[in-house]
Design a protein that fits this description.
Rossmann fold; alpha/beta; disordered C terminus
Amino acid sequence: MPADELSPGAFRRLAPRPYARARVVLFPHGGGSASYYRPWTTSAPWDIEFLAVQYPGREDRFAEPAPTDMRELVDAVAADLPLAGPPTPTVLFGHSMGAVVAYEIARRLTAAGDPPVALVVSGHPAPHLARPGQVHLGSDDELVEELRRTEATNLDILDNPVLIQAFLPVIRSDYRLSETYRPLPGVRLRAPVTVLHGDRDPEVTAGEAAGWRDATDGAYECRVFAGGHFYLDEHRDAVVELLTARARAMSATSAVPWPSTP
């Protein structure tokens, strides 16, 4: 495990930022892991720390059982929040399944009196418009075909019978979490919400993306990118720049000490 990662727990520090004034926490898509976001550090600035969430059941947490429902996953991530460090201005970002995990964590932080400065969500309908589904009930072959359709994972894994058999239980669990998700009881979100949406994303319509305006009492904004469900791969730098701008907007009020000048 790289020395810059936080362990044990859910949070992985993608690159050390000892003088960071704010942080961005990244929540992976279904079947994804913290390492999906590691390339984002190539364009991440020196003054904003990027952390990624590692869900149970994958990579260095492979031996841990995958959560059985969204509440269990959110409880596990929330329990590890102290490991992410002291309170500091925080932007939460989640793509696909990660969008609703980030949303539920934002509500937990709000209830605890330490709300995020912003929530940025991508590739998922608004929580109250979440689509039910039955992919998680299908056969292994049907699940693999769904992964091919959505381009949700590396094709080399899908074509390797040994790897895919190890990978499918986590994928099935994530589909179950997503397809059975309904907003959990809790406080209403007050943070501003920015929605990112691929203009050819078959998994979320423009109307379902716009529904996020009803998920918060804060400001709402929508940005549309060219691409499908994984438009992020083509627009990574632009998304990192947007997240950085959201984090910097509040960094001036941060209590994090600033280094003195010699």
